[in-house]
Write a structure and sequence with these properties.
The protein is 77% helix and 0% strand. By secondary structure, the chain is mainly alpha-helical.
Length: 65
């Protein structure tokens, strides 16, 4: 189940990568997905480390619109 969720996460990241108009959004999407995958697999215990990549992803998303 967890492996499928992580696979789905990376698929969603790839879809955004293809649709994004800017490199900042592509990079922010990858970094956020990587942190989410680390947390999901238990490789990162401090979930507050997600906040920075989340903010960068959201900011880049709005800028890309």
């Amino acid at each position: 189940m967890l492996d499928q969720l992580v696979d789905d996460l990376w698929l969603a990241q790839a879809e955004i990568d293809l649709a994004a108009r800017s490199e900042p959004l592509r990079g922010a999407t990858y970094r956020y997905a990587a942190r989410l995958a680390e947390v999901a697999r238990g490789e990162m215990a401090d979930v507050s480390a997600l906040r920075g990549p989340q903010v960068q992803f959201m900011d880049a998303s709005y800028d890309d619109l």
